[in-house]
Amino acid sequence: MKICEYCETKTLDDVMRCKSCGSKEFKNICENCGDIFSGTTCPKCRVTISDKPRICYDCGKKTYLKICEYCEADRVNRKQNIPTYTNANISNTQMPYETKKKSKSALEIIAVFIIISVIVIGSPHIMATIINENNAKLPDNLSDMDILTFPGHPKFYGKYGEAKRFWIKYRKKVKVVNAMETIYNNDALLLVTTGNEDKGVITKVIINFPKSNELTIDDVLKVVCEYIDYDIIEKYYSFNESFHETHVDGDYEGFHYVMKLNEEGKAANKSGEVYYQDKFAFNIGRLKNNEQWTAEISYMMYKGEHDKFHPKAYNVENWDIDLNKFK
């Protein structure tokens, strides 16, 4: 399986063009661990896109790995990590695998039961406490701009669960949802999402600013930068380009800022402890005679409208901007 880089639609490996958006750019989905990656080998579990699952000769389960994750049998050298027992009448006899498996399964069931009991008993009180604390942080009757700029709000690459709790009081205006629900919430004041494969971190932020003739690009950019974790982008990303594009008819203008994952970022990703996308990018744009600015921070904003549609329909120039001025 692979996933469209633009709209995140999953499709089969032999598909060349995304049926949803028409893009030809895809990333692979590891059939073993579900990680999303470029290239032919999953950096997390080292399974390649050509690997097929095989039946383990010891436990009968399917596995992609050389060492079966279910019974620890070595599928390459045909060895199993089970001790050997000897007595006067029988020599070199292995402990029956089914006995070991049943014993292990029983312990796992007991452990799961205990964990579920603790969660069921304790979670309502814990969640109620967390929600009440976050509601106490956000005052009532905030203006739209105050909601967007309230101190301490989660940022891009922040935890999705924390964002869900932080904005619960203003959930009619701020939508914190899965990426698959984006299409239903595009008109929200603030839209914060994560994808199924994004390890629970925020990977898209869309801001629909209040309509105003007084907001300048610098005013908008200052708010956008409040959603950027500078510690992450300064350490794990390198600047790629920034550009300003306008439609030749003057119907649209957009400002794009693009960074690429550097070697330190790639190494951090490979560790499996964090999740950083190949690109960090945002776009700020508006239509002609429209008083509303819209901003989006997401991987796919590295492309301008001139990349997606007819290049000659847009004028593109360098956008000289220093984000450090908006920290």
Task: Give a quick summary of the entry.
With 327 residues, the chain is of the alpha+beta class.
Outline the structure in words.
There is one protein chain. This protein is α+β, with helices and mostly antiparallel strands and about 325 residues long. Among the domains are: about 100-135; about 140-325, no CATH class. Helices cover about 25% and strands about 25% of the residues. The chain has helices at about 95-135, 145-150, 160-165, 215-225, 230-235, 265-270, 305-310; strands at about 1-5, 10, 25-30, 35, 55, 60-65, 75, 80, 85, 95, 175-180, 190-195, 205-210, 235-245, 250-260, 280-285, 295-300, 315-320. The strands form five sheets. Strands 11-12-13-17-16-15-14-18 form an eight-stranded mixed β-sheet. It is globular. The two termini are about 40 Å apart.
β-sheet strand percentage:
15-25%
Helix content: 25-40%
Spatial strand order of the main sheet: 11-12-13-17-16-15-14-18
Largest sheet: 8 strands, mixed
The stretches of 5 or more residues where confidence is low (pLDDT under 50) are: 80-95, 123-132
Topology as H/E string? EEEEEEEEEEHHHEEEHHEEHEEHE
Annotation, overall tally of beta strands: 18
Rg calculated over all Cα atoms: 25 Å
Q: Quick one: overall form?
A: globular
Distance between the termini: 40 Å
Overall pLDDT, averaged? 83
* Discrete helix count: 7
Structural class: alpha+beta
